[in-house]
Amino acid sequence: MKIFLKEGVKLSTLSLHEVDLKEFLEVIDQCKGDVFLETAEGDRLNLKSRLCQMIGLASLVEGGKIEKATIRVTDPEDDALLFRFNLYGKK
């Protein structure tokens, strides 16, 4: 799958570890820009799409938690939101 971004869009990267899936998807819904899940194979799935959520997350989930994933976002505010979620969990 290839994702084409607008020229000049910078992607911020965040690695997630042991994240609760339900809470993670609730945070994704709060994001303003695109949020991409990058797999070890190099695939990029836009997590703002429910179909991509099902496809991409199904292979990463073990026991209801995301063990490890790389997330890229297009909006700096989303980067901060996901960083706080990764650090502190949902509050």
Task: Walk me through this protein's architecture.
This protein has 91 residues and is of the alpha+beta class. The chain has a single domain, classed as HPr-like (Histidine-containing Protein, Chain: A), CATH 3.30.1340. The protein is built from three helices and five strands, in the order βαββαββα. Strands 1, 2, 3, 4 and 5 form a five-stranded antiparallel β-sheet that branches. Strand 4 (61-62) and strand 5 form a beta hairpin. The chain is globular.
Helix and strand string, N-terminal first? EHEEHEEH
Number of structural units classed as domains: 1
Give the overall form: globular
Q: For this structure, what is the CATH homologous superfamily?
A: HPr-like
Task: Classify the beta-strand content into a percent band.
Answer: 25-35%
Number of E-state strands: 5
Task: Give the fraction of residues assigned to helices.
Answer: 25-40%
Largest sheet: 5 strands, antiparallel
